[in-house]
Amino acid sequence: MRSDTSAQSHVVGVVLLLGLTVVALGGLTAVVGSVVDGHTTTADEARVADTFETAFRPVEQTGHQTARVRFTEGRLTTAERELRVLNDSGVRRTVPVDAVVYESGDTPVRFLAGSVVRGTAGNAWLETDPPVTATRDDTAVIVGAPLVNASGGTVSGTGGVSAGIRQNVSHERERLPTDNYSVAIETETPRPFTEYFQRVGATTRVRDIDGDGVQSVVATFPGRRTLYLVRHDMRTEVGHG
Questions:
Q1: pLDDT in tens, 77-104
Q2: Are 200 and 145 in contact (CB under 8 A)?
């Protein structure tokens, strides 16, 4: 009788051990899968950011340009964004710069107002700085305003995606008379833009200028200055292939 009980206990013990092993292996598989997915997403974000830095150089480029963006999975699309020039009386110029956005994991990549930005509102950084700066003698502000001016739709997929980007870049410069100027850039990631503008000597604040739910970083340059607004019209076409 004790022998039967002992045998049954042994069988039960083996079954429990096998069950725990299966559960452990299942958990390990999930962890490994999550790590692999995370590495894939990070690699995609880095690859797209590098491509944006290389492909989107409107300040330096003129005429037709082509590039290709590749990622394992995700979505490449555009978003409406504006750059504004303000003085003490209000908004003097509004430029529809827009943004090209890659989204897959937790760290979106954006080309916005001449900058490549990675991350979300709470944790974002600039890969490249916006082409907005003051002259060394503090007499002028140079504002580069790259207009995405996009046609084409969203490109998305899994298992390997290739998107073509075509541009035809032209430039137009406007000189605004001496005044007290601020420059505002609409963005979902205000912190890195705020830090940049403070580094180049501007004071900053964040507010929603037009009530559309997207905040702008408003950078005010001290003193009266001439402002040069340079529109870099990229006429961008985004599509598969």
A1: 999 999 999 999 999 999 999 999 999 8
A2: no
Give the chain as a 3 state SS string. Answer: CHHHHHHHHHHHHHHHHHHHHHHHHHHHHHHHHHHHHHHHHHHHHHHHHHHHHHHCCCCCCCEEEEEEEEECCEEEEEECCCEEEEECCEEEEEECCCEEEEECCCCCEEEECCEEEEEECCEEEEEECCCEEECCCCCEEEEEEEECCCECCCEEECCCEEEEEEEEEEEEEEEEEEECCEEEEECCCHHHHHHHHHHCCCEEEEECCCCCCCCEEEEECCCCEEEEEEEEECCCEEEEC
Amino acid letter, 35? V
For residues 21 and 53, the answer to whether their CB atoms sit within 8 Å is no
Domain ranges across the chain: 37-240
Interval 105-148: pLDDT, tens = 778 999 999 999 999 888 999 999 999 999 999 999 999 999 99
CA distance 70 to 60: 24
* Residue pLDDT, tens place only, 173-192: 999 999 999 999 999 999 99
CB 145 within 8 A of CB 93: no
User: pLDDT band at 16, cuts 50/70/90?
Assistant: very low
φ, ψ (nearest 5 deg) of residue 44: -60, -45
CA 215 vs CA 15, 118, 126, 136: distances in Å: 59, 17, 17, 29
